[in-house]
Specification:
mainly alpha, 89% helix, 0% strand, membrane, transmembrane helix, transmembrane, DUF2065 domain-containing protein, DUF2065
Length: 62
């Protein structure tokens, strides 16, 4: 995997992550408040699921 490809992927992630706060700042703030009030174990499971999904996608498409 080349450095350029990694930077392109990072750029796409940053664009996707930035769309929410850019277009819907009030909803985004409320969403973050709701997440911060969640159980820590639930957040860890969610994070683990996202990491697993990302690894699976990398394996499938690489």
């Amino acid at each position: 995997m080349s450095f350029q490809l990694i930077m392109l992927a990072l750029g796409i992630v940053l664009i996707i992550e930035g769309i929410g706060p850019l277009l819907f700042p009030n909803r985004w703030r409320a969403y973050l408040k709701d997440i911060s009030n969640q159980n820590q174990q639930l957040l860890q499971r969610l994070g683990g699921g996202l990491v697993t999904a990302g690894v699976v996608l990398l394996i499938i498409f690489s």
